[in-house]
Amino acid sequence: MKLNIHCYQHTKYEGPSIIQKWADLNGHNLNKTNFRINDSIPNTDLFDVLIVLGGPMSINDESKYPWLKNEKKSIDRCLNEGKKVIGICLGAQLLANVLGSEIYRCETPEIGWHKIYFSENKQNYEFLNFFPQDLITFHWHSETFDLPKSCSQIAYSDACENQIFTYGDIAIGFQCHLEQNEYSIGRMLEKSALTIQKDKYVNSNEEILANIHLANQSNKLFFDFLDKFLTEL
Fold first, then answer.
1. Residue 215: CA count within 13 A, CB half-sphere
2. Helix (H/G/I), strand (E/B), else coil: 100
3. What angle do CA 36, 145, 210 make, to 5 degrees?
4. How far apart are CA 76 and CA 94, in angstroms?
5. Residue 42 to residues 7, 8, 48, 53: CA-CA distances in angstroms?
């Protein structure tokens, strides 16, 4: 079945990356709303799957980014309609907020290559049970959230209690970036206005680039996840 997938994008340099490649290889349509260019929310009848990408802003900045309020309403509408929703980084925070959790500053930012650990809950989901017990993957966030009610914690890290969570079998949030590849991570480093100051869980630019090959394993796992999570539709 050919899927109509829609991505909510929040900045020019943080796009769908390998999600676009997966959609192309499988013959699915992928369209995007980039809120930096166009804040018009599409009718949810126009797509089967919603993927909410990352971005540098806070989900609490509705006065600065007024489209956030309508974006949250759209995510909520998709959940109520039973559509599959994937939230990544900022997208995971938006999903958690729609499901009832507050978003707040981390004790320390988490940027670069850090290990996540999977809970036993992953075994309850066919689209996650093939993940390893732990995985070094890419991170770029300074806010976090408590696990929303009715959700299952799937993975955590030393710096962040909720790295991956599920809402039944229709929605999943990834605080980490399994979808970004070597090229897109390099572009994030080049284009982001954020000045990275090394901290306990913050790599330097040089450390990030030296380990950028680690993206390949995350990308393969994310491809397999998309195969299992979306091809049943």
1. 20
2. coil
3. 70
4. 10
5. 11, 10, 12, 16
Give the domain range for residue 95: 4-230
- Other CB atoms within 10 Å distance of the CB of residue 100: 12
Look up residue 223 and give its amino acid: F
What order do you get walking across the sheet with 164-167 strand by strand?
29-34, 4-9, 49-52, 84-88, 171-174, 164-167, 152-157, 103-118, 134-145
Tokens read off for 208? 């990030």
Using one digit for the tens of pLDDT, what is the confidence trace for 89-114? 999 999 999 999 999 999 989 999 99
What the block records as the tokens of 60 is 């609490």
Kindly report the pTM of this predicted structure. 0.96
Is residue 132 a contact partner of residue 125, using CB atoms and an 8 Å limit? no
Q: pLDDT value at position 233?
A: 66
Cα–Cα–Cα angle for 64, 103, 117, rounded to 5 degrees: 135
Domain total of the chain: 1
- Could you identify the residue written with the tokens 């710096």? 159
The CATH code of the domain that includes 10 is 3.40.50.880
pLDDT band at 193 (very low <50, low <70, confident <90, very high): low
